[in-house]
């Protein structure tokens, strides 16, 4: 009986995943078909919306010249470094604020002051401090990711059931055991929510920073193409950014499901 139930649940889960995949393919395919129809009948000026064929040809030319790979590599490196720095500091400070009143009293006001500042507002500051080098992009991205991660981490620590901590202490658990067996596992769902938000924020800030102060990257590709009225390359850059963002978000979700396979409601209760 139990084996039958397990098979039914597994089959249901696979069926849901297949339906989601089909829905995504249909939605993307429908958008491409609509794009083709609009450009084929010239319902929009080709200068503003070039046909898919021109975008594909532009992608092939850039790929063969090696420029597309260079722009993607530069953007991914900046995004990765900013995401790592922002996530690491966000998790550490969020846990310290949630665990210790002293840190909350000392650091909490600073976080609350920084949190309402739009990520784009850090761009001129970063350019003044670091110039147009990669450090400015890493700083901008890390600030945006930090806010997303520290907020969710702090809320996750504060949302822990005190009964669990008291129960662990009554069983003789040390402070180290309580942290690694109670606090950290209970906070992980919130941390991963911060990671997912951080990925979205990092791409938005990355492109914005590369638009105004860079000589490489996907944002620079879009800006340079705009200057030469290359609408095909503008759309290409946007499509690559969307594909990369979607792929990295999916990787984070896969990692979340693996680390939180014991947690059946890993997406409930997170806050940003």
Describe, in plain words, how this protein is organized in 3D.
The longest helix has 39 residues, at 2-40. By secondary structure, the chain is mainly α. The radius of gyration is 23 Å and the shape is globular. 81% of the residues lie in helices and 0% in strands. The model is unreliable at 266-272 (pLDDT under 50). Helix 3 (67-99) packs across helix 4, helix 3 (67-99) packs antiparallel against helix 8 (175-212) and helix 6 packs antiparallel against helix 8. The chain folds into 2 domains: 1-43; 49-259, MetI-like (MetI-like fold, Orthogonal Bundle), CATH 1.10.3720.
Large-scale geometry = globular
Radius of gyration from CA coordinates? 23 Å
Helix content: over 70%
CATH topology grouping of the largest domain: MetI-like fold
Care to count the β-strands?
0
CATH top level class name of the largest domain: Mainly Alpha
Query: Any idea what the CATH superfamily of the largest domain is called?
Result: MetI-like
Structural class: mainly alpha
SSE topology string: HHHHHHHHHH
**Through-space gap between termini:** 42 Å
Largest sheet at a glance? Answer: none
Strand content is: under 5%
Number of helices: 10
- Tell me the number of structural domains: 2
Please state the second-level CATH architecture of the largest domain.
Orthogonal Bundle
**Averaged pLDDT, please?**
84
Which ranges are low-confidence, i.e. pLDDT below 50, for 5 or more consecutive residues? Answer: 266-272
């Amino acid at each position: 009986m139990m084996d039958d139930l397990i098979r039914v649940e597994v089959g249901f889960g696979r069926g849901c995943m297949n339906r989601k995949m089909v829905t995504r393919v249909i939605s993307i395919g429908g958008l491409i078909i609509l794009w083709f129809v609009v450009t084929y009948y010239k319902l929009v000026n080709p200068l503003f919306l070039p046909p898919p064929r021109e975008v594909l040809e532009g992608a092939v030319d850039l790929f063969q010249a090696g420029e597309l790979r260079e722009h993607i590599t530069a953007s991914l490196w900046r995004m990765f470094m900013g995401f790592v720095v922002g996530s690491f500091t966000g998790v550490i400070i969020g846990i310290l604020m949630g665990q210790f009143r002293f840190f909350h009293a000392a650091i909490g006001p600073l976080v609350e002051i920084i949190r309402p500042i739009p990520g784009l507002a850090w761009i001129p500051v970063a350019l003044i401090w670091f110039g147009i080098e990669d450090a400015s992009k890493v700083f901008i991205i890390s600030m945006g990711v930090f806010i997303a991660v520290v907020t969710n981490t702090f809320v996750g620590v504060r949302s822990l059931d005190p009964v669990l901590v008291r129960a662990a202490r009554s069983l003789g658990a040390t402070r180290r055991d309580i942290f690694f067996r109670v606090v950290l596992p209970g906070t992980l769902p919130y941390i991963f929510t911060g990671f997912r938000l951080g990925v979205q924020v990092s791409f938005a800030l990355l492109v914005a920073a590369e638009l105004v102060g860079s000589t490489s990257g996907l944002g620079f590709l879009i800006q340079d193409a705009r200057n030469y009225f290359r609408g095909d390359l503008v759309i290409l850059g946007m499509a690559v950014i969307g594909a990369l963002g979607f792929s990295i978000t999916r990787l984070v979700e896969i990692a979340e499901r693996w680390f939180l396979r014991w947690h059946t409601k890993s997406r409930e209760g997170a806050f940003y």
